[in-house]
Amino acid sequence: MLKLDRIVLREIRMPLVNFFETSFGRTYDRRIVLVEVRDHDGAVGWGEVTAGENPFYNEETTDTAWHIIKQFVAPRVLHQPLDSAGEIRDRTKHIRGHNMACGAVETASWELEARRAGQPLWKYLGGVHTEIACGVSIGIKDTVPDLLAAVEKEVAAGYQRIKVKIKPGWDIEVIAAIRERFPQIKLMADANSAYTLADIDHLKQFDRYYLMMIEQPLPYYDIIDHAKLQAKLDTPVCLDECIKNAHICEQAIAIGAGRIVNLKLGRVGGFAEARRVHDICQAHKIPVWCGGMLESGVGRAHNIAMSTLANFVLPGDVSASKRYWKQDVIVPPVEVSARGTITVSDQPGLGFDLDHKFIDSITVRREELS
After folding, report:
1. Active site includes 264?
2. Residue 332: is the preceding peptide bond cis (ω within 30°)?
């Protein structure tokens, strides 16, 4: 039985080590909402809202998430007897959209339950991998030589897969340059919905470069056109933004919209729905991997836990803290081995300690809901 007595919201601000650019813009720093939940016995769990500052990846932002949690999620879960953290999904499912806001409270509650049970979160979720394979996501750069230098750095660091962001005007030639320089690496391209079906002949050119996948090339809400595109491509299409829940995932698989799924914890609303998506993909032999949203260490630790589930068989975007932050909010920071892996912790909950002093120093807004 779970009964939440308090939710504490904190907005922290963290500058990125390097800017990160996608097809919808360039990011220099992050405004992140951390969610702390407490139960009637004083047990604590932490979660993170993975929404961006702007409604470009999806409809959510840092500010909308704060509003939704305060006005709509908290009243539905505080002081309510819950069978488990997974029930939070059912209590909030009539809130349309805003999965990242709802998911932050849900994931924090899973961590609370795991801590209370004395188990690492990954085991509490049913994970089986004690070591996860890591890739990196490299944003759009000012020049191709800058991009090649970034790729070389990450390959030398041991990462098992390189993902590069693309957009019209920064795509085929860029991939060709990488392939010429690095013919053997596992390489994929992420379009973040920058193309339409009218670009099909252009997108077919990617088949020359034996990519692992091309991620979400078409609009964020679409699966039908993705099915038409996949039928014309040899390169596997990976679905990201459009997979918002297990039902849409089933539909996408049924019509052949893609051969791979990027599973993002916040995008689907937390661990309960993420496990449903995972299980559906596993039953249909669709591999999944964990995508990133420039998370702090809290969200990164949740991603590590999720990536231990059985069908996470491709390297994900769970990379080292130092790639993004001069200092992270967890101790120790996430580190990646020379062979591109993270060994999961057997400590209860997230497996990391929170650096409360540092969190306090970068907190710009705080509100307690009780």
Report:
1. yes
2. yes
